[in-house]
Structure to design on (251 residues):
C-alpha cells in the first residue's frame, strides 16, 4: 500500500515550475539492479563494494574489479525501467522545468524516456582509459591479457568503467548543472538514496537552504530523513506513480 500523500504536497507540486529529482540505487531495485549497499550475491558476497569502487583496488587487482563490473553490467543489460523510472519521465512532461539528477550508472532513466538527465557518477556501460581518461567506444578496445581488462588502443593502458570511484572528482559539467538546478528549484524529490555519499548527499540540504520544499521517497529511514519537509515511506515504483496520478489526474 503506497504512503499517504498529503494534499498540500500535491498542490505544491502542481504549481511548481522547477522541480529536481535526485535518485539513487533504490529506484532501480525494482528493476532487479541490486542497491549499492545491499548484500552482494554469489561469488561477490565476500567483497565489500566500497572496497572495490576505488582506483587503488583497480591498481591492486584490475582483473577482480573488472570482473565485478562485468557481472554488474550483465545485471544492468537484463534490466528494464520500472514504474518509478517511467513516472519520473512522465513528470518531466508535466512540470515546465524538470531536472533529473541521478547517482545511478545504469542508464535506466534515459531508457524510460527522461531527457534532462545529469549522471553524477558516470555510466557503467562506457569505458575509459585508466591513465588518459579518454572514453573508448565499444569495439575500439585492444584485447587484454586473458583474464584482465581490455587495453586502450592509444596508450596500451587498461580500460576501466567510466564511473566515479571514491576519492575521484565528479564530472564538472554535471555537478555544476546539478547545483544550479538545486539552487533554483522550488521542490526537490530525493528518491531511493541512503544519503551517505557526498557531494550528491549534500544536494537536498542545499535545496532546503535555498528554500525549496524537500520530499524523501524511500521505504527506509536514511541519513537525510530528518532534514526533509515530507517523507513518503514506500518503494519508488509504487509511490511515484501514485504521486503522479494524485497530482495530475484530479486537476
Ligand atoms: C529504495 C527501494 C525502493 C531500496 N524504492 N528506495 C563529505 C563528508 C564525508 C565524506 C565525503 C564528503 N565529501 C566527499 C567525501 C568522500 C566520499 C564520500 O562521500 N564518502 C562517504 C561514503 C563517507 N565521496 C567521494 O569520494 C566522491 N568524490 C569526491 O568527493 O571527490 C572530491 C575530489 C574533488 C576534486 C578532485 C578529486 C576529488 C565520489 C563519490 C563516488 C561514489 N561512487 C559510487 C560508485 C559508482 C560506480 C559504481 O556503481 O560502482 O556511487 S559509491 C556508490 O554510492 C555509488 C552510488 O551512486 C552511491 C550512492 O549510493 P545510493 O544510490 O544512495 O545507494 P545505497 O545502496 O547506499 O542506498 C539505496 C537506498 O535505496 C537505501 O536508502 C534503500 O532504503 C533504498 N531503497 N529499495 C526506493 N524500491
Amino acid at each position: 500500500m503506497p504512503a499517504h500523500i498529503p494534499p498540500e504536497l500535491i498542490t505544491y507540486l502542481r504549481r511548481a515550475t522547477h522541480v529536481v529529482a535526485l535518485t539513487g540505487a533504490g529506484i532501480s531495485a525494482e528493476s532487479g539492479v541490486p542497491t549499492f549497499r545491499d548484500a552482494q550475491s554469489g561469488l561477490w558476497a565476500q567483497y565489500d563494494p566500497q572496497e572495490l569502487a576505488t582506483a587503488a583496488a583497480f591498481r591492486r587487482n584490475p582483473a577482480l574489479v573488472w570482473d565485478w563490473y562485468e557481472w554488474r553490467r550483465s545485471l544492468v543489460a537484463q534490466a528494464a525501467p520500472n514504474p518509478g523510472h517511467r513516472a519520473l519521465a512522465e513528470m518531466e512532461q508535466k512540470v515546465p522545468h524538470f531536472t533529473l539528477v541521478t547517482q545511478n550508472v545504469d542508464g535506466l532513466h534515459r531508457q524510460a524516456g527522461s531527457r534532462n538527465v545529469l549522471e553524477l557518477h558516470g555510466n557503467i556501460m562506457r569505458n575509459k582509459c585508466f591513465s588518459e581518461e579518454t572514453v573508448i567506444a565499444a569495439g575500439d578496445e585492444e584485447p587484454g591479457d586473458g583474464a584482465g581488462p581490455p587495453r586502450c588502443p592509444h596508450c596500451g593502458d587498461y580500460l576501466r568503467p567510466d564511473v566515479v570511484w571514491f576519492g575521484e572528482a565528479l564530472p564538472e559539467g554535471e555537478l555544476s548543472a546539478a547545483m544550479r538546478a538545486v539552487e533554483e528549484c522550488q521542490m526537490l524529490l530525493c528518491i531511493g538514496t541512503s544519503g551517505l555519499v557526498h557531494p550528491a548527499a549534500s544536494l537536498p540540504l542545499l535545496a532546503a537552504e535555498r528554500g525549496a520544499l524537500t520530499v524523501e521517497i524511500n521505504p527506509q529511514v536514511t541519513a537525510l530523513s530528518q532534514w526533509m519537509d515530507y517523507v513518503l515511506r514506500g518503494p519508488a515504483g509504487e509511490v511515484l506513480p501514485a504521486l503522479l496520478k494524485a497530482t495530475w489526474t484530479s486537476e
In short: The first helix runs from residue 7 to 15. The first strand starts at residue 18 and ends at 23. DSSP finds ten helices and nine strands in the chain.
